[in-house]
Amino acid sequence: VSQSRYMGSVRVELTKGDGLMKDFRLGNPKGFSGDELLAIGNGTVNLDLKSITGPVIRIEKVDLSNVSILFEGKGKANNMTALKAQVNERASRPEKGKPEKETKIRIASLVMNDVKLDVRTSGIMKVGKLNLGTIRMNNLGGADGDTPSEIAAAISNEISSRATTAVLQNM
After folding, report:
1. H or E stretch at 80
2. Residue 57 neighbours by CB under 8 Å, 6+ apart
3. DSSP state of 126
4. What is this structure's pTM?
């Protein structure tokens, strides 16, 4: 996958189980513009410290703010569908040279605040910028946890679904 990634800063306080991040950006999938598909202004993570050595890392809350998503359409293709296909394909195949047993994660609460969607399509349809408000997801990974790839796929699928629905409602 030839997507760019950028993280401005990360601060983790292991003794408290808290983390802060600023300025995270994920580039578009191959075949689309060089613009960011996802940008997160800042975020906090709270995790259960006792779970770090266990079979499932339990993250109590992920709170993200100033989230920007780019929906870019080219003909019948769009960057959300391309990302979803890449993430789902990666989640379904084991990585070469790595042990089969991957760390499992459970996220009790994921909140994306102030989500803005920038819609760019070729042709005559112009949608522009849409406000998706707050996106909440609970119990990611279930009781037994999922691999990071499976968690990423679930989040990607939810964002893709919400973005696609918003675009179709505003055509």
Report:
1. helix 79-92
2. 47, 48, 51, 103, 104, 105, 106, 145
3. -
4. 0.80
Residue 16 carries which DSSP code? T
Angle CA(156)–CA(91)–CA(84) in degrees, nearest 5?
A: 30
Calculate Rg over the CA atoms of the chain: 17
pLDDT at 15 over 70: yes
CA 57-12-20 angle, 5° bins: 100
- Length, in residues, of the chain: 171
The two beta strands, 36-47 and 77-78, are unpaired
Instruction: State the DSSP code for 39.
Output: E
What is the per-residue burial (b if ≥16 Cβ within 10 Å, else e) of 61-82? ebebebbbbbbbbeeeebbbeb
Looking at the DSSP assignment, which residues form a beta bridge with residue 115? 67, 133
How confident is the model at residue 3, as a pLDDT?
64
